[in-house]
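Hey all, sorry for the wall of text incoming. These are the two entities for the joint prediction.
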Amino acid sequence: MTQIQFTAPTSVKAAVRCLAEGGKNPKVLAGGTDLLVQLRAGRVKPSTIVDIKKIPELKQIKAEKGGFRIGAAVAGAELSAHPGVKKAWPGLVEGFDLIGSTQIQGRASLGGNLCNGSPAADSVPALIAAGATCKIAGPKGTREANVETIVIGPGKTSLKKGEFIVSFFLPKRPRRSGDAYLRLIPRTEMDIAVVGAGVSLSIDSKGVCTDARVSLGAVAPTPLLVKAGAKALIGTKVDDAALAALAAAASAACKPIDDKRGTIVYRTKVAGVLARRAALIALDRAKGK
Amino acid sequence: MAKHHVNTTINGDPVEFLCDTEQTLLDCLRDELGLTGSKEGCSSGDCGACSVTVDGRLVCSCLVLGIEADGCEIGTIEGVANGDELHPLQKHFLKEAALQCGICTPGFIVAAKSMLALNPDPSESEMRYWLAGNLCRCTGYDKIIKAVTNAAAEMRGE
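and here's what came out:
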């Protein structure tokens, strides 16, 4: 058996080099809550493991342009403990906090949850609804991409060879904005989403929705940005008719599979129900309730 | 590639060991250092039997590589008692018979201790959520919750 090399670079530049020089199948290690399970099961056979947690930028949460820059390796427990992010984006923080146990929260990262490529990743619909972008470093330098462009299929991402996510950017919140993420699981804790729905919206002083983003998880091969759902809300007072249109748009966007967690029919129905409920919570938050 | 030389602190004592990349912190604690208090249950981060703290943060040691412990402060079940004197959590686990087979117990005690360090007076709901990543197939959890409740009260001086 060839031994797995290990390296823990302390800069983004060094990490890019480690990945370029890391043999046939270098793997990035952040929280390790997916990688170590895959390693043990023999599903991944890395040539090199590159631990990115020693890079300061990957573990920081900073204010930037009125919004926040969150390092890709920041753990769930660290994000939950940040009062600024929690105040501006409670839905994102709650979505991330739904993942796993206290022990998992101590390690699991936003970047890892995204790059693992699960259609059911709980933080991803919340990130997409938030309009988050990510900074990606690679052999050709750095680039920014919208979060919804990263996952392209179960376990597959659009990251090119040698690229990794450095950080996420959450934009400045207009006044009277709110977000929410809801998921359905058959238990109360520690399970994988049957359906997840994230909604972020802003309203004006008259209560009219001026901007919205809607995202769904676990109902298609990738997390979805549902533009028709946002369209159903914008220009309305998020009344019953708008919520019904949102639910219909969410259900229409679903392309789920039948599996042990739920059937196609059930997931499609629940996606509409959860989108509607998430929109109501986001609306309450936008109104300061 | 030669083995990695890891310098770490375990329960306050400086410790060094050698490991391969794929050895988990749990493997290193048990197989390299003889600290067999942390148990291997699922090896996938689901059961919590291997719970330890790394720089004060509660984690599953089966989901941490041994080499990641380099330069860190590790806390394990072996560091919970003060010499021969049991920690209040340990005393109340015994008193309430909050264990049968005992495999989950070290993980529960390490996890409960880390909870009480942050929140000395948790509600039952907070306890159950905090400990949701620790599975026990013997007790049905009620005795564990009672033991943690009583230990927390003793630690608060009540």
